[in-house]
Amino acid sequence: MTHVTIIGTVIAKPETRDELQALLSAQVAPTRTEPGCLNYDFHVDPSDPCCFVFYENWQTQADLDEHMAMPHLAPLFSQLERLLARPVEIRPLKMLSDMASQT
């Protein structure tokens, strides 16, 4: 199966870190229920608490595109300039191994 993998890196301004973490955390549960979401995992860099990373796998590019238009993302998207130290970095990847079992 060909699917879409991305790593999204989000860097908070130090003064907005906690607020951004709360907004990002709130995206996990609704995103995991979206059609085509294979996994949506939220991380923080232990050496830089302002650096948040999402590891995502989607069945298709269309599923990812639909995700980016979901209403539950609007509260986050409307405040990115105020919250972020730099623009979101989205890095597409091509998986070379099979996906791990989701059991």
TrEMBL record:
Domain (ABM) ranges: 4-93
EC number(s) on file: 1.-.-.-
InterPro entries: ABM_dom, AI-2_Isomerase_LsrG, Dimeric_a/b-barrel
Keywords, comma-separated and alphabetical: Monooxygenase, Oxidoreductase
Major enzyme class: oxidoreductase
GO MF, any single term: monooxygenase activity
Name the record gives this protein: Putative monooxygenase
